[in-house]
Amino acid sequence: MSAPLYQSPKGVHDVLPDDHLYFSFIKKVVRHHCRRAGFRRISTPMFENVDVFTRSIGSTSDIVEKEMFTLESKSGKKFALKPEGTAGVIRAYIQHGMQQLPKPIQLYYVEPHFRYNRPQKGRFRQFHQFGFELIGESDPAVDAQIINISHRINQDLGIDDRLTLQLNTIGSMTDREKFKEDLINFYTGKERSLCEDCKRRMKENPLRLLDCKEEDCQILASMAPKFENVISSESKEHFELLKEYLEELNVPYELNPLLVRGLDYYTHTVFEFWSKKDGSQNATGGGGRYDGLIELMGGQPTPAIGYAAGMERTVEYMKETGIRPPNKDAVAIFVAQLGLVAKKKSLTLINQLRDEGLNVVGAAGKGSMKSQMSLADRLGAKYSLILGQIEVQEGTIILRDMNKGSQETIPIEGIVEKMTKLLGGKSLKNKKLWEE
After folding, report:
1. Model pTM?
2. Domain residue spans of the chain
3. 17-172+232-321 carries CATH number 3.30.930.10
4. What are 96-125's pLDDT values in tens digits?
């Protein structure tokens, strides 16, 4: 069989109906936890001025240097498809005067993002993330609540037993500058043992030396100075309180002094959920505190913390765990008919059944009864209702149980009520769509 004439670009993929069951379920779980915790949904544009990302993420980060999709307008203005969600949310927070609202501001999103990654399992050039940001509060109890919500989402999705929570503190901006000096001093003279990326990082972003995945670099990182040697008493107190709060919430964690995360805006708390099998290579998500980002982007100094997770990776883990989300799209009733009179009658019947909240499909073509029943079987319908000219004349209808293979002829009067009772439908007749 020859390849299709047109295919999706390398590194992107179609989300087909079966996978949308997973995506819809994830959105439902995220929405549930965020609403209960007082978060409100926000959506930012798919592309921003390129400076939004170079300024917030850091011009020397791998995302900006290697992975950002950039485009140029006819007037020469540069834009970038958003590689992550926080920068756009903070830009919107400042632009729309949200700093005037009561604190904390709590926002969540579910959106596509774009990075020029090398395509591989669980990593795509267009991918979907859900995330949430809490702006305006520096209490470590807030850090614990953000981590707890993330943990509970993983629990409800059924993937928490595949993951470990990795936790660290990278202190204040002042602490980080001191630590960078210690790292440069340690790595000076050892450049020959570093990969090419780390040779560059040593000059541009020394903290990233600690989370390189190359084996030789990992060995050096394990011998490098530790954050705890330079971290301030204030930062230590913040972290100690966070650990106490997590223990109170029964959220298990592993301390990881090498965890720094890849974005320049993080301070104090950083955390990630790693695969127990593959470690950071298959992390589902992570986050941390970014108390200096809003000021960096032109707003007033404001503390904040956030979290984001990849939906494709989450779906992968759900499938591996054998989790199948509930299918609200499943066909409950198939209405088959033969003849023009029966077809007219079936159209009204289908509408009445749908008004009762039931998923109903009706055969619309001129297929034989055999082909119609074959379609009902392929759709997985629980019941079929069959109308022909004789049934219309006699005021009856054939009710077929597709699982048992049995059928009976019954009066058509009252069939809507009977099917609603059988399938547990809930009348939508007098409800607006948003009340469903």
Report:
1. 0.86
2. 17-172+232-321, 333-428
3. yes
4. 999 999 999 999 999 999 998 776 666 789
